[in-house]
Design a protein that fits this description.
single chain; alpha/beta; Rossmann fold; L-fucose Isomerase, Chain A, domain 2; 2 domains; six-stranded antiparallel β-barrel; 39% helix; 21% strand; Fucose_isomerase_N/cen_sf; intramolecular oxidoreductase activity, interconverting aldoses and ketoses
């Protein structure tokens, strides 16, 4: 994945100390570097003698042009003293990227009563002018450079900006229409494009069948790597060598289609025509691709694919997602629920050293190609992008893995804070039975990302919106 680029535009105002502003410009940059985030920072060095944004119109144009040429994904305007609100607003408006606003807390006035920076006062001014320019922005509480709330807010903003940049460039490879009986998987393709810029690239099951059969005949490096991986990582005692090869061929064909079409996610009609065409389930192929950061959703769930990209991006693409049904309640735990699908969870999440590649347990022909077994528990985020009647929401909640009875397929039992509340919210919608999970707390960054996606409303159930905001302020 291409690194996120952050435009760094520290700002000062001429009436306050230039020396102190320069000092804080350096300190803030050093602090950002110490966070260890894998991002590229584009600064203002060379545009003027200070590498700072201050109040002249040419300065604003030069800064915006540098950030555009470098194709930054977000911009940070730390106020090293009062700052220059009009120049900040012009640059931010010109870029149209997520904006971070913050400034280091002032020290006590000098002995003679003079103040060097008045940073907080300037933040009030810039916030107002950004509103006048209709520029959405993220704000971190006025705090010291070494305060935990700055690090927390900065990292959360970077994750949110990563969600926004991948959401805005999202193209989904759609393999086949939804299964005819799955009305829940309806989506409005035109509205997704018009409102969010999300593109679908549809191909037929005939297309993917031909591509998979072509790969099956090949002895390519990609085929050999896929076959070797399956043999090394899974117990294949219940299937044949031909089954392994067909699954590998489907995986390679799907990845090639995604790469060639510039698609970052896939939604596939996983049953039942595909089984008639090539004699396997695509579940394990889906699992392998999801582990490679190309998430694949079942039953042609386009909204699920959108969710997958958002959740994966919120974790800075450092952890795999898993795509699950919310299936049945725990037999003993009133707040427990089964997250399950036929066999598509990433192999890397398995609790077994060698999970099984098996034949599907529901179909009459017992088509092979599922990855079965329990995945690890621990703390996780569950999310769902969905909508109807022209309104879109992002469901957000946290869960943790618990013990539960054995079942077939890929699965994990989880506990939430108040399952009846979750259930009511999910049934009343606009949601369905599909969700995306990840072993990371990405709720605050997904919540913040919605600020930059017009038409998408965050819908957190646990933590609540007030709790998320308090956490971002450093109040908890």
């Amino acid at each position: 994945m291409k690194k996120l680029k952050l435009g760094y535009a520290p700002t000062r105002r001429f009436t306050f100390s230039e020396q102190d502003a320069f000092k804080y410009k350096v300190q803030i940059r050093e602090k950002m570097d110490s966070f260890g985030m894998d991002i590229d920072i584009v600064d203002l060095e060379g545009l003027n003698s200070e590498g700072l944004l201050y109040d002249d119109h040419i300065n604003a144009e030069q800064i915006a042009e540098r950030f555009k040429q470098q194709d930054v994904d977000a911009v940070f305007f730390p106020h090293c003293n009062f700052g220059t609100e009009d120049t900040v607003a012009r640059v931010a408006k010109s870029l149209g990227k997520p904006v971070l606003l913050w400034g280091p807390r002032d020290e006590a006035p000098l002995e003679d009563g003079m103040r060097l920076r008045d940073t907080q006062c300037g933040l009030f001014a810039t916030g107002k002018v950004l509103r006048r320019f209709n520029v959405p922005f993220t704000y971190i509480t006025n705090s010291r450079v070494n305060d935990p709330v700055f690090e927390r807010g900065f990292k959360n903003f970077i994750s949110a900006a990563n969600v926004v940049r991948q959401f805005r460039k999202l193209r989904i490879l759609q393999i086949g229409p939804r299964p005819h009986s799955f009305w829940t998987m309806m989506c409005n393709e035109g509205e997704l494009l018009e409102r969010f810029g999300i593109e679908l690239y549809p191909i037929t099951l005939v297309d993917i069948t031909k591509a998979a059969k072509h790969q099956e005949k090949m002895n390519s490096t990609e085929m050999q790597e896929a076959i070797t991986y399956i043999r090394e990582k899974l117990d294949i005692s219940e299937v044949t060598d031909d089954d392994v090869r067909r699954v590998a061929a489907l995986k390679v064909a799907m990845k090639k289609y995604a790469t060639d079409t510039g698609s970052t996610a896939i939604a596939i009609q996983c049953w039942s025509s595909l089984q008639d065409a090539i004699g396997i389930m695509p579940c394990l192929a889906n699992a392998l691709l999801t582990d490679e950061q190309i998430p694949v959703t079942c039953e042609t769930d386009i909204h699920g694919a959108i969710t997958s990209i958002m959740v994966q991006a919120a974790a800075m693409n450092e952890a795999p997602i898993f795509f699950a049904d919310l299936t049945i309640r725990h037999p003993e735990n009133a707040n427990g629920e089964l997250l399950f699908h036929c066999g598509n969870f990433p192999v890397s999440l398995s609790v077994e050293d060698k999970p099984k590649m098996r034949k599907h347990f529901l179909f009459d022909d017992h088509a092979p190609g599922t990855h079965e077994g329990e995945i690890r528990g621990g703390d996780m985020t569950l999310a769902r992008f969905d909508g109807d009647h022209g309104e879109y929401q992002l469901f957000l909640g946290k869960a943790r893995g618990i013990q539960g009875p054995y079942t077939r397929g890929s699965y994990v039992w989880v506990e939430v804070n108040d399952w009846p509340l979750w259930e009511e919210k999910l049934v009343k919608g606009p949601y369905v039975h599909h969700s995306v999970g990840i072993h990371a707390n990405v709720i605050p960054s997904l919540y913040e990302a919605c600020s930059y996606i017009p038409g998408l409303t965050p819908d957190p159930v646990d933590p609540t919106e007030a709790q998320i905001q308090a956490w971002l302020r450093g109040s908890v």
